[in-house]
Amino acid sequence: MNGPSWYGVINSGSSKSFVVYLLAASSLAVASTFFISHGPSSPYGFQDQHVILSSRSVRVWPELEVNWRSGLATVIGFLGSAFGTVGGVGGGGIFVPMLTLVVGFDAKSAAALSKCMIMGASASSVWYNLRVAHPSKEVPIIDYNLALLFQPMLMLGITIGVELSVVFPFWLITILIIILFIGTSSRSMFKGVQMWKKETLLKMEMRKQEEAKSNQEVVGTDTTSEPLLHRPEKSMLVSANSYALTSKINLPLYYVVYHLILLYSDAVDGLKEALRFNIRWKGISVLMVVWFSFLLLQILKNNSETCSLFYWVVNILQFPVALSVFSWEATKLWRESRQRRMQGNWESVCEASIEWTGMQLVFCAFCGLLGGTVGGLLGSGGGFILGPLLLEIGVIPQVASATATFVMMFSSSLSVVEFYFLKRFPIPYALYLISVSVMAGFWGQFFVRKLVKFLKRASIIVFILSSVIFASALTMGVVGTEKSITMIKNHEYMGFLSFCEK
């Protein structure tokens, strides 16, 4: 790159507009809660003796049975996990309505089960991505620098979101989710269209170059880079062609078996090589330390009395844990980016094509915290914020999907443990849905990435991301509207609930 990257400059105005939209709309929604709860125009005020204080949902756990409901939930869960992990958003906005409308779980139990599904799908997707080469560089497809930057704030936000889910009324959570999802879906769709146009121009230019070389019959080296295409994947599977070729030759059985053993050994060696290259143990070790720190604090918190002094001390301790790791990674990115700019080197420090200034880092911290809070409220993995954000800062779709899924694996597993201590989900249903999502996550990554390679359009991943977010906004809107109408008819209290009485 011969000059500074103007990506951050170009997108700074639109990013600020999006933040202003999000803050204004969310503030209006939260303020309306006080109006509905205590306002004079509300038909059912807080002091009305006929109001039913039932914003806390009653636990409903259907039995795991073989019927049309479980069958339909399996199909929706499989498709949602497959496309959700490819887009890097998880799919919680689809799982929660599916578990409430189709299966019959209450909203908060559905959110907990949604986390289980996201954990399973993200784990299998990470395993797949560890075997995949970066589209254009000799680096892992998972950006560990970005993972270290966002994961601590995402986990902090999730713990905040879980607590707020007890206090916030259902209708308010629904409105906040719709506001957020419509904004992120629109931004992602716009970016996908831009990428599609660039890919079309690139393919046309490559076709012209090939035609010119064919006409001139000139043999040369093609220096055109293809940043959006996959290199061959390293797989542990034995080649079917090799087996077929061997089986057609009339050879002794022991020789065929020996040959297959050699093929399998080569495949295993290739897998080991890919894993050694793609795994960065230092980054994973830091992420595991953060994960276990939050887990320990959650265990201590859940074994303490709500709103006691020890309870608040444990809650507050989560902030220095998250902020220390975030500050460490942010400082490293800022120093390296500054040093490169001083030397006249405008190459990006990591996969994000922005200059890591103080404002950019604060914005990333805010988005990570927001994504985690949304994940805790809804039961998603935070990918509805992280996935679009990675695209916004210039990360290519394949890396954005792999990195967001990698971060979600840690955040969703932490939420599953926390929900387990809160006894929010039935174990049999959780194990079944996890098994479905594990298979869906792997095969979703396999088929979509093959499609991207065949069509030579990475923008497909962005369109999938936008579509999943929009579908989540639509389903959440339908469920939320129906629930709110029922609450109004039943004269239920629709304001904030007491935190210390949860």
Task: Please render the helix and strand layout as text.
Layout: H1 7-38, H2 68-87, H3 92-103, H4 107-129, H5 144-167, H6 170-216, H7 240-248, H8 253-278, H9 281-302, H10 309-342, H11 358-378, H12 383-392, H13 397-421, H14 427-455, H15 459-489
Helix pairs in contact: 1-6, 2-3, 2-4, 2-14, 2-15, 3-4, 3-15, 4-13, 4-14, 5-9, 5-10, 5-11, 5-13, 6-12, 6-15, 7-8, 9-10, 9-13, 11-12, 12-13, 12-15
**Helicity, as a percent range:** over 70%
Number of helices: 15
Global shape: globular
Sheet of most strands: none
Helices and strands: which structural class?
mainly alpha
User: Got a strand count?
Assistant: 0
Strand content: under 5%
Spans where pLDDT lies below 50 across 5 or more residues? 1-11, 38-55, 221-230, 232-247
Roughly what is the average pLDDT, rounded to an integer?
76
- N-to-C CA distance: 55 Å
Give the domain tally. Answer: 1
CA radius of gyration: 25 Å
Order of helices and strands: HHHHHHHHHHHHHHH
